[in-house]
């Protein structure tokens, strides 16, 4: 379940012809997952993307249990690539940015699931 949450965020899709540098600059900040087919009912997920290519995810499950994950991220063209390490295992997920504005991020993962994020900061 947690791996799924980490993977969904990787598959971002952005409209337009912005460069990877433009996407990177717009992506830096704090985002709340507001729409997802994969997020468990009652859960809240927040992503923080840092300009040096690191990120963290805070997942708060219904009932208040909190889990934090560390990631590395990069953008190649319109693809967002996120690598997550959990214990000794490392996984990488790639997705296409559908839309990225100052306030909204829409992503489609490699299995076709849509996610939507709203900027908090």
Q: What features would you describe in this structure?
A:
- The protein is mainly beta and 121 residues long.
- The protein has one domain: Lipocalin, CATH 2.40.128.280.
- Helix content is 12%, strand content 54%.
- The protein is built from two helices and nine strands.
- Strands 2-3-4-5-6-7-8-9 form an eight-stranded antiparallel β-barrel.
- A hairpin with a 2-residue loop joins β6 and β7.
- The longest helix is centred in the first third of the chain and has 8 residues.
- About 9% of the residues have low confidence.
Strand order in space, largest sheet:
2-3-4-5-6-7-8-9
Q: Provide the structure class.
A: mainly beta
Shape descriptor reads: globular
CATH architecture: Beta Barrel
The CATH topology is: Lipocalin
Our measurement of the CA-to-CA distance between the termini, rounded to an integer number of angstroms, reads 26 Å
Largest sheet report: 8 strands, antiparallel, barrel
Instruction: Please compute the radius of gyration using only Cα atoms.
Output: 13 Å
What is the N-to-C order of secondary-structure elements (H for helix, E for strand)? HEHEEEEEEEE
How many strand units?
Answer: 9
Return the domain count.
1
Overall pLDDT level: 86
Question: Which helices and strands appear, and what pairs or packs with what?
Answer:
Elements: H1 2-8, E1 13-14, H2 20-27, E2 29-36, E3 44-49, E4 54-60, E5 66-76, E6 79-86, E7 89-100, E8 104-108, E9 114-119
Parallel strand pairs: 1-7
Antiparallel strand pairs: 2-3, 2-9, 3-4, 4-5, 5-6, 6-7, 7-8, 8-9
């Amino acid at each position: 379940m947690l791996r799924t949450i980490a993977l969904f965020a990787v598959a971002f899709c952005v409209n337009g012809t912005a460069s990877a540098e433009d996407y990177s600059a717009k992506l830096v900040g704090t985002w709340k997952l507001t729409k997802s087919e994969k997020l468990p009912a009652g859960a809240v997920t927040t992503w923080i993307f840092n300009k040096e290519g690191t990120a963290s995810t805070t997942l708060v499950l219904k009932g208040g249990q909190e889990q934090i994950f560390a990631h590395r991220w990069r953008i190649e063209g319109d693809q967002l690539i996120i690598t997550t390490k959990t214990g000794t295992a490392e996984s990488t997920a790639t997705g296409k940015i559908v839309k990225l504005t100052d306030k909204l991020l829409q992503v489609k993962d490699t299995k076709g699931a849509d996610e939507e994020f709203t900027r908090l900061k």
